[in-house]
Amino acid sequence: xxxxxxxxxxxxxxxxxxxxxxxxxxxxxxxxxxxxxxxxxxxxxxxxxxxxxxxxxxxxxxxxxxxxxxxxxxxxxxxxxxxxxxxxxxxxxxxxxxxxxxxxxxxxxxxxxxxxxxxxxxxxxxxxxx
Length: 130
Fold this sequence. Notes:
Layout: H1 2-9, H2 17-32, H3 38-55, H4 60-73, H5 75-89, E1 94-98, E2 105-109, E3 114-118, E4 125-129
Antiparallel strand pairs: 1-2, 3-4
């Protein structure tokens, strides 16, 4: 049985970020379909079928292009969530500041009082309270 599953999945594309996203949206649509709106059920079924098709596809270049397109379109959202996660993880030791000149975010140590910080991107100096 195990060898059969391994043989079935050999040479297949598998799960990628777009596949994970499709699966998550399909699960949300399934939960929404409990409200007796059939559109959500059809949508969740279509998304699951599309995700399974992509997962078991042998056409690597086409699936990689699809995933690359998805990653490009969602880059800003992923960066925002990544920064949010980093801020939460380092909330006790680090303060994140947006540069007033270039608008990039950089970090400063917490608890140092009023300090002059230099932006690592544009090298402009500004005064911040940590």
